[in-house]
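Sample entry was shown:

___
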Amino acid sequence: MPIYTDSYYLVDNRSKSFIFRFIDEYIPNAIETSDEYPVPWFAESPVNIFFNIDDILKYLENNLHSEYAIYWRNPKEDLDIKHFMIFFTDDGKMIFGVSINGEEPNTAVSINVFKELSGFLNTKTGCITVEEPPPTNSIEFIEFCSNRFIPTL
């Protein structure tokens, strides 16, 4: 099983259209890794279950304190980005995440992906790590990044 290097980027919005613009640009054939989305996240007895990505994204866009994670995979094996993740924070923000093959955060490919996506997402808060999910709070995420690899932009 491959090992993945993950890079994460904090953005100040939860816009569904922004997520789809990212997908269209970087992984247009992305495949969701789930077919249902229970709310609250990881609840034993969910209040609601969404079966459509548009519906769960609309819900999360409008419920700023709901934390959640959604994953996609890239079926195009020849592209650097293998997986894409969105983490909705409990304080109204999102953390974009992508996974590439590798187990070293400071490779040329990893740094190039980080720089390109930081520019696209218009963020200065991000980091690279190896197979480690981020916290779902923006303040905790900033602290998380301070202890991870951050390329110079």
Notes: The domain at 4-146 is CATH 3.30.310 (TATA-Binding Protein). The mean pLDDT is 95. The CA atoms of residues 119 and 125 lie 11 Å apart. The helical segments are 16-26, 53-62, 108-121, 138-146.
